[in-house]
Structure of Na+/solute symporter:
Amino acid sequence: MIEFTLVGWDWIVIALYLVFIMGIGQVFKNVNSDASDFFRGGGNMLWWIAGMSAIVASISAWSFTAAAAKVYQTGFLLPGIWWIAGGIAVPVLWFIAPRFRQMRVITSLEAVYKRFGLASEQMYVYLVMPMSLFWGGVGLNAVAVFFASALSIDTNTTIIGMTTIVTVMSLFGGQWAVAASDFVQGLLMFLTVLVVVYFSVNLPEIGGVSNLHNVLPDRHFDFTENARPVVLLLWVAVTLLTLTLISIDLNGEGFKYLVAKDGKQVRKMVIMMAVIIVIIPLKSIMQLPAICAAVVYPDMTAVFPDMKVPAEGAFLAMAFKTLPQGMMGLLICGIFAAAMSSMDTAVNRNAGYFVRNVYLKYVNKDSSGEQQLLVGRIFTVVFGLIIILIAIAFNKLREMNLFDIFQVLNGMILMPLMIPVVLGILYKKTPSWSAWSTVLVGLISGAFAKMLYSDELALKILSETAPLNAAEQADIQYIFITIIVFVVSVSWFFMTSIFYKKSSPEFIQQVDVFFEDMARPIDHDLEDIKHQDGMQYKMLGFMCLVFGGFILLGMLIPNELSGRLCFLFVGGVIFSIGLMLYRKYLKSTKDEV
């Protein structure tokens, strides 16, 4: 077994980083004056902060663990799918995303209420909230178990520590703090990962990018080594469909477009996503170290014998091999950042759901903005505690190999929940009950598909005789269930349009107003929206200057020249961006005078 341990400089970097992150909530504490500020940044964020937050939210810690394991085995397949999915999502979001902001809602479930009415909204509340809490806990547990196995950090301590950081930050700063944290930490994550990528591909065992095709195993290029072509094509198609729906689902990644200042800023967010995910594309490039690990560490079991899935340590193993002392601590912070961003869904956003879609409906309909803010902060803490309990409880069950089972269950539930929301903002001639009934029919069809599925049935459908291997069995079950749920749910949703004309005049008028709102651009003066551009340039500029300066101090750590240059690169870029933002703030202040 190869020992991977953090040195003292790494722990110093991590400690200072945690102090910085904990302070973000305090920085934005006074920016929140009502529920809109706390839960969606007042719908007033500029494209660069909202865009980075959206991109970071799509890159969870799963990208460095489970996804790294998949990439270690299959090479360029998954990065290629991400790239194609981004290329599909960009034109779709260019058309749809401005409508999200123009819905003029604080939470995504308020949009469900405006489109489908109270019954559908409440069904989503009691399905989406528990699911996001559960997956927040499971995701947290996955990261905690990963670090416990790889770095000898106690699992429960990691769970409690990470959740406390996210909760405290959200408690004081709300969505402003979350987005600001995503921006600064997103820069850190991308830049640090690029350092790992550079050193990984230039290892003697690899010989540079141009030599990858000579040293990588055949399975990294010939994807049919793990699955027959028909299974592979179906898996790619279904995965692209799912990723596209997730990107435009208001209860998923689509939520991030509610926080932008207006439709023009939203389209700039989409351009930013196109550059970072499609044109460069960073999300796919990030997986190169895991790909190279297949050459450097062909037997990951010998590297991480205590990990349940040793290949999940592929990225981390390459980082330990290539990074100078102190820089590994920064990378750990970046992986924490990816996990923290996804946990926001289960803390700040769930608090928003509770306040706006439960508390206002049933407890205090006349609640003031200050009261909603107080209740939101209370339930931010409550949901943080629930996530800790879920993660610790799941930690005791992790030996039962439940992850794949829950993944299938999540697919069975997620697809029916997404379809009415996605289709409902494109097509309006369905009755109020079309959403909740589609969810119900989709859940039933998913359960039926799960019971109906067998390897023998799959082979008959595919007209194949050779038995399915282990990878194909998992993929085919996922494909089978997803296709059935998708076809049944979409068919049912459009079938309900037959009854649209029987809807009440009040409902038809409500839907008409909803679609008119989506088509009407935001008018900042008429809608009395705060002018907070200067505040964003000032605070984010200051944060980047402080954080970038802190990283630049890493050049003093006793490393070789190449190691010191790593800190110069990461810290210098963040500091330069901070300088640019702060100068923009000073210029805007001067122009106003």
Remarks:
- The chain has one domain: 8-568.
- The two ends are 65 Å apart (CA to CA).
- The chain has 24 helices and no strands.
- Residues 155-201 form the longest helix (47 residues).
